[in-house]
Sequence to fold (279 residues):
Amino acid sequence: MATIDNLPPLREVIATHELSAKKALGQNFLLDLNLTAKIARQAGDLSGCDVLEIGPGPGGLTRGLLAEGARRVLAIEKDARCLPALAEIAEAYPGRLQVLNADALQVDATQYLTPPIRVVANLPYNVGTELLVRWLTPEVWPPFWDSLTLMFQKEVAERIVATPGSKAYGRLAILAQWRAEARIVMTLPPEAFTPPPKIHSAVVHLTRRDAPAFPADAATLSRLVAAAFNQRRKMLRASLKGAAPDIEDKLRAAGLDPTLRAEQVPLEGFCALARIVKP
Ligand code: SAM
Fold:
C-alpha cells in the first residue's frame, strides 16, 4: 500500500505506544492512511489554512491533513497516552503541528489559530453534537471557521442534512442549514475503524454562509423550533400555543397553515414566523 509519509504504519504506532482503544473516550481509530488522506481532501485545499482537529488519537487523520498540505494543524486530544505518537508527527512536519492535551469542551482553541480556519475531525461520538451546536451558535456571526468537515455516526449526519418531510428533520437540520450549507460527502462502514463501532459513520461537510439563509433573530428562531419539534406530532397551532399570543394569526401571517406539523415546515417558514413573533 502506498504511504503518505515516512512515519511508521499506524498499527505499529499503536503497538509501540500501547494505545489500546478506550470506549469511554469514544476511541475508534482510523488506521488506513489512504482513507484519512481522502477525508482530509473533503475539506478542500488546505494549503493556506490553519486546521483545528479535535481528537487526533494516534494521528491518522492528523497525518492526512499534514500530507494534504495544511499550513498548520492544532490538534486537541484529551488522552495523554497519545502525546508521544503525536510528538513524532510534529517532528516529521517541523512547525506545522501543535498539540494541546486538553478537553475540547473546555479549551478556547481560537487563540492558537490564524484565519482562514477549517475544522476537520473524526469526532468522539460523546461530544460531537455538542461541539457542532457550539460552532453553529457563537455570539457573533460569521464564526471563527470557514468550513467544518466532521465524522459523525450516520444517523446524526442524516439529521444534519435532513429535508422537510423526513423523520430525521428537526432542530439540528434547521440550526445547521440556517447558517451553513451541509452535505454528506462520505459514508464509512464499521470495519473502517479499529475497533469497529456498532454503527455506520458519515462525514459531513458544512460551509458557513456569510449571512443566514433567511433573516431571523437567532434566539427567537431557536425557541420556536425547539417548541415545535418538542411536540413534533402535534399541529403547530397546538405545539406553539405557549410560544406567542395569537399564534394562529401569526402562523397565517407567516404563510403557514396552523394545522401543519413541525416536520412539514421548511427552514424558510420557521424564519418567516420568527420575524413575525420577534424577540
Ligand atoms: N482522529 C483519530 C482517528 O481518526 O483515528 C481518533 C478518533 S476517535 C473517534 C476520537 C478521539 O477523540 C480519541 O482519540 C479520544 O481520545 C479523543 N477525545 C475524546 N473526548 C475528547 C474531548 N472531550 N476532547 C478532546 N479529545 C477527545
